[in-house]
Amino acid sequence: MQRTALSLRGLEIFQLVAKSGSVGKVAAETGLSISTVSHHLRGVEESLGVSLLDHSRRPMVLTPAGSTFARYVEDGLRLIRRGEIELTSGDLSQTRELRFGIVDDFDNEVAPELTRFLARAMPKCTFNHHTRPSHDIVRLLSERKLDVGVATRPITGASGLSEYPLLRDPFVIALPASSSDAPESCLAGRSKLTFLRYSRNQIIGKLIESHLRRLRLSLPNRFELESNQSIIAMVADGSSWAITTPNSYLRARRFHDRVTLHPFPSKGFARTLSLFTTEDYPQNVTDMIATTLRRLITRHMIEPVSIQAPWLASSFRLLGGDDPEAA
């Protein structure tokens, strides 16, 4: 059988176009010109002698032959990347690239310290750092646009990714310090304070809504916000209340004297913040990042909260592989 002259770059371009259906999107994503992307795509098809994509449709779709070939390309590129990573990451000092995403919950103190530590540990590494909401980080990891990410565990899990739980962050009730309302009154709709929702596009918002449905609670929907700072600020203003977490509260330090946290009445619940990696990412780098993160989380999050709210000590805590709640 005659061998084809397939190029690795051509296969990478084909995989990207197969997923997006658009040469223009791949050009924008890779920084290549549209003509260069089209040239690589044509090269793969001409080398194989078959049409892999239906070019007459927008977005383009895979032909039957393209669907079959795409499965093999994905497996093959995954093995190549894994081999490349293992060769360059056996010695941390030789690691050449790290595409890292971190949820904005960790962006104040943890992310800068982690970046400084990694820069010292991997002096030859090029870092590509992203701060995103959790759902974006999980998506970018699934699309292989990140190697490592810290995010809230999605309700449905993170299929195809390796997870290393870091922090149990329980949900609590945030009330104005000046308010005499009980959390039970707020949940029952008997408070004059306005309920503030986290956006239901975010994982934290979805977790809250899911728990409210389990409790058969229906709360008014006047405010639905993506900004944690705005939510805590409006609670501090004295007119509102929210379901939040200790870590979310901790990020809004300037409002602490005007906001009081209370245990969630009835059946409590929590979110899990975890380190996620692609399944082929080397274990030694993952272990180093996870160990460093747990040390920084203890210093910058758990210890300050345990001083301000000692009653949270047993529920706001580190998670490890041997913790039953980490699973």
TrEMBL record:
<dbReference type="InterPro" id="IPR036390">
    <property type="entry name" value="WH_DNA-bd_sf"/>
</dbReference>
<keyword id="KW-0805">Transcription regulation</keyword>
<feature type="domain" description="HTH lysR-type">
    <location>
        <begin position="6"/>
        <end position="63"/>
    </location>
</feature>
<dbReference type="InterPro" id="IPR036388">
    <property type="entry name" value="WH-like_DNA-bd_sf"/>
</dbReference>
<dbReference type="InterPro" id="IPR000847">
    <property type="entry name" value="LysR_HTH_N"/>
</dbReference>
<protein>
    <submittedName>
        <fullName>LysR family transcriptional regulator</fullName>
    </submittedName>
</protein>
<comment type="similarity">
    <text>Belongs to the LysR transcriptional regulatory family.</text>
</comment>
<keyword id="KW-0804">Transcription</keyword>
<dbReference type="GO" id="GO:0003700">
    <property type="term" value="F:DNA-binding transcription factor activity"/>
</dbReference>
<dbReference type="GO" id="GO:0000976">
    <property type="term" value="F:transcription cis-regulatory region binding"/>
</dbReference>
<dbReference type="Pfam" id="PF00126">
    <property type="entry name" value="HTH_1"/>
</dbReference>
<keyword id="KW-0238">DNA-binding</keyword>
<dbReference type="InterPro" id="IPR005119">
    <property type="entry name" value="LysR_subst-bd"/>
</dbReference>
<dbReference type="Pfam" id="PF03466">
    <property type="entry name" value="LysR_substrate"/>
</dbReference>
